[in-house]
Amino acid sequence: MEERDGRFFEKGGDEVRQVVAKMSKSLKNVVNPNDIVSQYGADTLRLYEMSMSGFTDTAPWNPDAIIGVRRFLDKA
Fold it and tell me: Which helix (H) or strand (E) holds 68?
């Protein structure tokens, strides 16, 4: 994948778009919570999930935000 003018393209030249969708094995967009817990801790994962959106709303998974939650917990 390469970036040109703030947009991303596959090696074949097709533009890649961000689509907000539910996590699904068939879409291959699943994040393993065990990996997150081993890297950042269970409290970080719990706080991130509670703060990312309302219970019935959908929200994109943002790994950069997890780092921010970890820093917040370190300060607290």
Answer: helix 63-75
| Range in 2-11, 17-26, 38-47, 55-64 with the lowest mean pLDDT | 17-26
Cβ neighbours of 61 (radius 10 Å) = 15
**Distance separating alpha carbons of residues 76 and 74, to the nearest angstrom:** 6
pTM comes to: 0.61
* H or E segment and range at residue 3: strand 2-4
Nearest to 71 by CA among 49, 31, 38, 43: 43
Would you state the pLDDT for residue 75? 95
CA distances from 34 to 4, 5, 7, 39, 75 (A): 34, 36, 32, 9, 24
